[in-house]
Every structure is written in structure tokens, then in C-alpha cells.
Sequence to fold (186 residues):
Amino acid sequence: MHVLVTIIVLGLIHCVTSNAQTRLDACEAKISSTLGRALLERFPGYRLPRVTDNLRDDVRFDLANGGDGCISVPSADFDGDGTKDFAIGLTPKQGVVPIVVVALSRNDTWVFSTLKSWVDQRIRLYVAAVSPGIYKRPESTDTPLERDERNSIRCTNSLVKVGATESTGIVYCYANRTWTYVWVSD
Fold:
């Protein structure tokens, strides 16, 4: 009887630890295998994001506010064609500077665009989808506009917001096959 109880307990422990090991990271779970393969092929110096790429406090804040802990893989219809697209903060294999890639869905393939984030450390990067609307540059900003930068944007599609947690925010709108952006915080 004692041996049977020991075998059952060991079997339960094995099942619990196996399930914990096979459970996907919240960021990995959002990216299909076909999209993941396409990203890694196109951007070989980077890997797919993980929840642990960000600061614990930022992950805890996201979880406490109804998120899943992944603050770098939003999905929405960024180009207005009625299909789900993705914005992904890729993690460098060497160094600390991430890149943000938007994957627009096109039938059985993806069209990639890289967005500038001005974030110099992966642990601070966030990427979010924001609702269509009007977004304006703060009046206190007095630097000259850069190419594709606007004082304000009116976008009918969902937008991609990127930045450094507790610091910056830039929203990108895709219209007429072009990405334009406006700084919304500094």
C-alpha cells in the first residue's frame, strides 16, 4: 500500500511539473508558429519576446490591471483590412537594443515593417495597440518634426504605441501604405 501511494504521488508530481514546463510564456503564446518562423528568418539577430524580457514591476503592473504579463505583443487591425495584425518587440540575441516589428497579415503570409521606438534597453520596451482616434503631440515639445512625424494624427485604424515604460510614448498610424507617427508623451 505504501509503495502504491508513493507511486501515485510521484506520478502527480511529474504531471504537475511537466505541465508547468510545457506551458508557453504569455508572449510566446500570442505568436503563431508560422509567424514566429517568419520573424526569426527575417530578423536572425533577434529572438521572440518573453514576459521575462521586461522589468518585474512592469509585468506585475500589467497583471494587476487585467493583462497577461506580456507587454510587447499586441494584436489589432492596424491596416484596416479586417484581419488581425501583430506588433512585436523583438529581443536582440546580443546587446540590449530591441526592434519593433509590425506583421500585417496578407492571406498566408506576412508583410513586415520596422518601427523606431527610441528605446535603448529591452527591459523598458512596451508595445501596445491603441484605439482609432486623434492623437496630438504635447504642446511643450519644441523639437523640429522628423520625416514621417506629425504634430497630430487622425487614424481610422487601430494604432501601434511604442515606448519606454514610465517614460515615452509614440503612436504609429498606417494609412496609404505608410507609417506616420506622433509623440504623445515624453
In short: The radius of gyration is 20 Å. The helical segments are 2-22, 26-30, 33-42, 56-64. The longest helix spans residues 2-22.
